[in-house]
Amino acid sequence: MDTYDILLYGSYILIIVGAAVGILMPLIKSLDNPKSLLKTAVGIIGVAVLFFIAYSMSSNEVLPKFEAEPFNLTPELSQAVGGVLITTYVLAIIALVGIVFTELNKAIK
After folding, report:
1. Pair 87, 50: CB distance under 8 Å
2. Rounded-to-integer distance, Cα 98 and Cα 11, Å
3. Domain co-membership, 104 together with 69
């Protein structure tokens, strides 16, 4: 086993531990204030609804060159990718509008 392999496995472990701590600690802290869990649940449900709307709007068309190797793209997977892309676009636009609104609001005050 090479030094690079050891460091790579070490980084995998640190990423997993960091992700676990990053997810579990806010959940433990939010048990003190259950209303914050409600806000989080509303946000997750909102993003899920937005995804399903985007998924239903997206097309399941697959070009012949993507049906074969190495892609093996199916119509269902194509529609899921389209739904994720539309969701990403909508969330990016919402974020940009929020940033502009916040900056304009700060400039006025």
Report:
1. yes
2. 35
3. yes
**Which residue shows structure tokens 């389209």?**
82
C-alpha–C-alpha distance, residues 79 and 5, integer Å: 38
pTM for the structure as a whole: 0.71
Claim to verify: residue 73 and residue 94 sit in the same structural domain:
yes
User: Could you give the count of Cα atoms lying within 13 Å of 64 in the half-sphere of its Cβ?
Assistant: 0
CA–CA gap between residue 14 and residue 63 (Å, rounded): 41
Residue 50 makes CB contacts below 8 A (sequence gap 6+) with: 87, 90, 91
Q: What is the pLDDT of residue 55?
A: 96
54 CB-contact burial (10 Å; exposed 0-12 / middle 13-18 / buried 19+):
buried
* Structural domains of the chain, count: 2
Owning domain of residue 10: 1-32
Positions of the chain with pLDDT lower than 50, given as ranges: none
- Dist. CA 35–CA 30, nearest whole Å: 8
